[in-house]
Amino acid sequence: MRNSRVMHLYAIGTILLWATAFPITRIVGKAMDPIPLGTIRCTAAAVFLIIVGMINRIRLPKTFKDGCLLALAGACGFGFYMIFFNTGIMTLTSATSSIVIATTPVMTALAASRIYGEKLSGIGYAAIACAFLGVGVLLLWDGTLSINVGVLWTLVAAVLFCCYNLLNRKLQADGYSSVEIMTYAMISASIILIIAAPHAFSDFAGIGNVDKALAIYMGIVVSAVAYFLWAKAFEHARHTSDVTNYMFLTPLVTTVLGFVMLREIPDWGTVVGGIMIISSVVVFNLKGKAS
User: Fold this and answer.
1) CA pair distance 12, 1, nearest whole angstrom
2) Burial 229-244 (b: 16+ CB within 10 A, else e)
3) Most buried residue among 18, 47, 148, 239 by CB atoms closer than 10 A?
4) CB distance 109 to 174 below 8 Å
5) Distance between terminal CA atoms of the chain?
6) Which residues of 249-265 are buried (b: 16+ CB within 10 A; e: fewer)?
7) How confident is the model at residue 143 (pLDDT cuts 50, 70, 90)?
8) What's residue 80's pLDDT?
9) What band does 128 get if pLDDT is binned at 50, 70 and 90?
10) EamA domain: which residues (predicted)?
């Protein structure tokens, strides 16, 4: 049942939780490498979701194809996403990383227009072009021959999350609940990351208690709870972009948290590129859909 008011609440709640991931990942990332950190985060989320799933008696995938799609959603939205996101943010500020991730709504809308027939206007395509020009500013601000590799890592993470949004939409259309999608996707991601970082748990045992608590918080709250709210928002949305466009709020909240928690002050490249990207996403949200 679609309910726009409920959709807005779920989406806003997700963004507020996700914004905490940027500064906290930078904090814990000083104690753990990117892949082990992602492994701990996904494993904590998977354990939590398995318990929730058992209580709710979730169903097994209906077909082998659906099982593959759930596994692919986990690989895109959590497994490989964690690797690229955690690696990228180590060389970026929280604000810059969140701005790059904020390109996800326009990527998703562009893909959804091709896959699901959600039409875009000329203004929508112009906004998409401007957003990616803003990414170019972030990449090249320090010099035309010096590309910020952290932005490239994070941009790939944004592409992967776009793929997750599209798969999430399809799986819900096929009758899977938010808890079912999240549980199987997170289990898949955990398996991928454990294979990539078999030493993750020994690394986790060696870090401080505060870092351990923050890593578990990111797993249960930022991953399990926030992504569940995100999936619930899709259940009440008419179009994919109705939900994903809320991601343009993330840089604002993240910049505030980055300053409060890490005393990060955005540089001019972040300001100029960020204004281009966020303005483009706002314009796309208001005028980007064809009537």
Assistant:
1) 19
2) bbbbbbbbbebbbbbb
3) 18
4) no
5) 23
6) bbbbbbbebbbeeeebe
7) low
8) 94
9) confident
10) 8-139, 149-285
Q: At which residue do the structure tokens 């893909």 appear?
A: 111
Closest to 38 measured CA to CA, from 96, 77, 93: 77
Residue environment code for 269-278, b if the CB has 16+ CB neighbours within 10 A, otherwise e = bbeebbebbb
Phi, psi of 264 (to 5 degrees): -80, 130
At 17, is the pLDDT very low, low, confident or very high (cuts 50, 70, 90)?
very high
pTM listed for this prediction = 0.78
